[in-house]
Amino acid sequence: MSTTSKPPQGDPSAAARRRGARPLADIIGAALAPACRKRGFTTVDLVAHWPDIIGGVYAGTTQPDKLAWPRLPKGVESETSEPATLTLRCAPSVALRLQHELPVVMERINMFFGWKAVGRIKLVQTPLRRPAKHARPRPGPLLPADAARVTATCAPIADDGLRAAVERLGRAVAQRDRR
């Protein structure tokens, strides 16, 4: 029998190596949870699975914004909670069509939760919140030595069009490596 040495129990890096890579979906939920709770969503599930819930037609033109639960009078504890109001951001171009389909949308949301969680949907016609796009870094300058190396490497290519295309590719790669 061969004996294998186990890493010490207190070594967190060893546990991470054993576990391997984790899917981003498992990590992102924990990061979004505080922001979602602030907007009334007790879990990230509605926001994370919104395209699946709403369907392809409205996936890119709607976003759940806020889930408002009705307040109970002080001292009253309800066995059955009243359904919430979902504030839904939508593009103005789809608001009228979506208004007519709200009962179906509400049914799909409640089916997702497994109980009548949403009793009313309030549409707000505002631009959707999109994540900020980061500009790509501009490529660094092409050094004369790199340009000469690319030209010399591509010189044996007989076809002029192919040689020009390969040179452009070589220059782009050399510039990208300079970033």
UniProtKB/TrEMBL annotation:
Listed InterPro entries:
DciA-like, DUF1159
One Pfam family in the UniProt entry: DciA
The protein, known as: DUF721 domain-containing protein
Organism this protein belongs to: Methylobrevis albus
